[in-house]
Structure formats: C-alpha cells, structure tokens
Automatic annotation (TrEMBL):
<keyword id="KW-0547">Nucleotide-binding</keyword>
<protein>
    <submittedName>
        <fullName>Sugar ABC transporter ATP-binding protein</fullName>
    </submittedName>
</protein>
<dbReference type="Pfam" id="PF00005">
    <property type="entry name" value="ABC_tran"/>
</dbReference>
<dbReference type="GO" id="GO:0016887">
    <property type="term" value="F:ATP hydrolysis activity"/>
</dbReference>
<dbReference type="InterPro" id="IPR017871">
    <property type="entry name" value="ABC_transporter-like_CS"/>
</dbReference>
<dbReference type="GO" id="GO:0005524">
    <property type="term" value="F:ATP binding"/>
</dbReference>
<dbReference type="InterPro" id="IPR003439">
    <property type="entry name" value="ABC_transporter-like_ATP-bd"/>
</dbReference>
<dbReference type="InterPro" id="IPR050107">
    <property type="entry name" value="ABC_carbohydrate_import_ATPase"/>
</dbReference>
<feature type="domain" description="ABC transporter">
    <location>
        <begin position="6"/>
        <end position="246"/>
    </location>
</feature>
<keyword id="KW-0067">ATP-binding</keyword>
<dbReference type="InterPro" id="IPR027417">
    <property type="entry name" value="P-loop_NTPase"/>
</dbReference>
<dbReference type="InterPro" id="IPR003593">
    <property type="entry name" value="AAA+_ATPase"/>
</dbReference>
Length: 261
C-alpha cells in the first residue's frame, strides 16, 4: 500500500489548561476522502489548523508522505501541497472572479524594468481551470461576492486543484448551503478525489459525508469517538453516533420511566 499523504498519530493540543485535542489519529490517502465529523467544540477546527500549519501539535506525530514534520506556518504546509479552504473562504468580495483566482500567484509581463499583472493570461488561467472542473461561471469580471455560496466554494476547490495541491482540506463547505448548492459542492469534492487528491472534509452532517467519504473520523470533546472505513459503518449508524445515540436512548428510557403510571 502506498505511503499516506498525511498520517496523524496520537495528536494532542492544549491551550493553557484546556485540552482541545487528545490522542487523535487518522490517515489521508491520494484518491480518497477522509471525513472528520463532530459537533461544535469537538476538536475539528483544532485538528485542521494543525494539518494546515496554523498551530503546532503538543504531543503525537504528524507525517507528510512518511516524513515527520512540525509546520511553522501555513506557507510551509502549502509548500508541501496542503491547501485549506476555510468556511469564510478568505476571498476579496469586491474583486473579480479571475482576480481572486490568481491572487498570490499572479502571472506578470515585463515592461522594461517593471513587471505588471498580465490580465489576459490571468483570465485564461481562470477560465481553463474552471472549465477543466466543469464549473460554469459565465462572467469572470463579476465580483466574487456576487456568486452564490456554492459557486464560491467550487471556485476555491478549482483554485487549489489548479495550483497543484496534493491534499485539499475543506472546512464545513456545505454548512451554510441549501440542498442543491450542497450537492454541487459535493460533486466537485468527488472530482478532486478522482483526480488523485487526498481530501479532508470537515462537516457536522453525516448525510453529506457518507456519499463521498472513504473513511470517517468522529470527534467528541477533543477525543476520538470512533474511526471507520466505509465498509465498517452505514449512514444510519454514523448518524446515530454523531447525534449521541447512546445518550438519547438513555434519555428516552429515563423519560419513559418518568411519564409511565
């Protein structure tokens, strides 16, 4: 079996006296989707910030293609092929679609001693990358803030794929979307997976995770509630564990005792 793109082994992170993450392990492989599920405060954000180089882990080991690493910055993670699309997308709403797409990687032309933005080349890059992913945005000049939430997510995914990401981390990409828009985003998640990327999908919705996921990491209060390959769990059990099925069953039993004559 090939070396995982990312392997987290017993990762732990504390902020002062607060333990945000404790002994969390998972793997991310090329051509697969690893779904990280949990309610608010489960530790999902802390985990992805470690993977993305925003924070460093206190305990455990993080391996990138078999090499033990400790990222000092998001730039180091990006240089190793780990691209993160956060929920707020970090776009400039008043800038055009193409300008946002090439932001930070602008093509330039030399005019004497000066290097100026090559606008035509930037538009060509954006159009081709979107077309390659099957994303239909007719007017690249429109401000990116005028796109729907699903369209903005798709542009961000296409950008990461175009600029050579090996791992794509998506932070709650469907959280604020309706059913149709969420379906569109998940379709492009599958496209990224089928192109050979390793995808980390952060979500609190098992019905979004299960159709696209290959493995599932469930977190609760910073610890692992469970880790499963798709063959080991069905969507109903995933939902039950996500919703605190055991606690709900115990509560129902208690309520039945209270109301029974």
């Amino acid at each position: 079996m090939t070396t995982p793109l990312i392997e987290a082994v017993d990762l732990g992170k504390s902020y002062g006296g607060v333990v945000a993450l404790r002994d969390v392990s998972t793997v991310v492989r090329g051509g697969e989707v690893t779904c990280v599920l949990g309610d608010n405060g489960a530790g999902k954000s802390t985990l992805i910030k470690i993977l993305a180089g925003v924070h460093q882990h206190d305990t455990g080991e993080l391996r990138i293609e078999g090499e033990s690493v400790r990222f000092a910055s998001p730039r180091e993670a990006l240089d190793r092929g780990i691209a993160t699309v956060y929920q707020d997308l970090a776009v400039v709403p008043l800038m055009s679609v193409w300008r946002n797409f090439v932001l930070g990687s602008e093509p330039t032309r030399r005019y004497g001693p000066l290097r100026l933005l090559d606008r035509n080349r930037a538009r060509e890059i954006t159009r081709k990358a979107l077309d390659d992913m099957g994303i239909d945005i007719r007017d690249l000049e429109q401000p990116v803030g005028t796109l729907s939430g699903g369209q903005r997510q798709c542009v961000a995914i296409a950008r990461a794929v175009h600029y050579g990401a090996k791992v794509l981390i998506l932070d709650e990409p469907t959280a604020a979307l309706g059913v149709k828009q969420a379906g569109i985003v998940l379709r492009y998640v599958v496209q990224a997976r089928d192109r050979g990327l390793g995808v980390v999908l952060i979500t609190h919705n098992p019905h979004h995770a299960y159709p696209v996921g290959n493995r599932f990491l469930l977190l609760k209060r910073g610890a692992m509630l469970g880790a499963y390959d798709k063959s080991e769990i069905d969507v109903s059990e995933l939902t039950r564990q996500m919703s605190g099925g055991a606690e709900l069953e115990a509560l129902q039993h208690e309520l039945d005792r209270v109301v029974s004559p």
